[in-house]
Amino acid sequence: MLKKLIKMVLAVLLVFSVSFTGVLGMERTASQEWFEDAKFGMFIHWGLYSILQGSEWVMNEAGIPVREYEKLASKFNPPEFNAGDWVSLAKSAGMSYITVTSKHHEGFCIFDSKLTKYDIVDSTPFKRDVMAELAEECRKQGIKLFFYYSLLDWHHPDYFPLGDTGHYSDRGEGGNWEKYVEYYKGQLREICSNYGKIGGLWFDGWWDKPDADWDLQGAYELIHTLQPDALIINNHHRKPFPGEDIQEFERDLPGENLFGFSGGAAVSQLPLETCGTINDSWGYNKSDHNYKSVKELIHCLVRSACMNCNLLLDIGPMPDGKIDEQFRKRLAGMGQWLKENGNSIYGTRGGPYAPDKWGGATWKGSRIYLHVLKPKSTKLVLPEISSDILSVSLLDGTELETVREKGKISVNIPKKIRDEIDTIIVIETKGEGPFYVKGK
Asked: Does the global pTM surpass 0.90?
């Protein structure tokens, strides 16, 4: 009977740990621990599609043939590109890493590849390796750099047979799939060999041909051999494949499927990341003015952290290399908020209270941070946790009135102390996390 009870308790704790703490799940590498502590990154979509100022999918959506789309390269000469400015913007926003599109679905590379002439050095008047400049600047400013790499390629003649997209590129019939696989793995070798120590590889496009033999195992082994500390992320919308270090969710929080990408992806024990946009677009879109407010973006970050998940927030630079002022203002607002409240985000883990309509919780060491995102909330009634509570206060130390009875703790939130964005309440405990809700 006792053995059965112990098994039941362990099973419940395991489920809980997968959702919020991760501590009873798989062991973390140093890189994975760093990633979970980092919490906030910048996503950058930039390529030939930026010239058309509409969508990174424009080649496919507008049915532009390869021979016509290639002409955009002769117009790619961004006089305002400044790697130092891009990295400084990320750092001032409180971001710990940058993920940038080294090659998107269009097949054009914004790094210097010896395996194709269809790159920024060989095919444009710009003739500078953007990724090399970003890598150097990231090292200077203490930001980690991740290379986004599209497995899908609408341009390469050996990407054949075609998948679900790219049917209007007019490349003709034929191609050698095995040669294409060797091509993309060769470019991974270049990325892992030519840019110093990198944060990792962020893959996209597998979903275009889910039944194809991509030799991901060979690709992952190559990366981990050349860059042992690099993290591998694949935005394939499935449960993680062997060799992957982070589970990605597109636009949704873990467990959600509001945008239709995550229907087949159960939340794993790996570190988690969700990617999202400031407006509705990934690349620069001059007609997209549906910008999220600073408050909405902070809530995206906080809700992600409460789910034990990183937020990778996207910007789309203009064709000339400038960053839109609307992006800058919002990132500055987030950076200012994090200067004041970052201790409740960085280095934390989600829980012990599951996210709810009022907000959610993070914890670090002996502290639990309650993020009350509903400014009209007057009281929180929560179940007791597995550690003795020493105090309940605001971040500035102002103590709050609490009542404990019948296995619950009630925290009063007077109107005068509520914050319009996030009322952060600190629960100081006698022990250190991970914490568990009693009775769970």
From this structure: yes
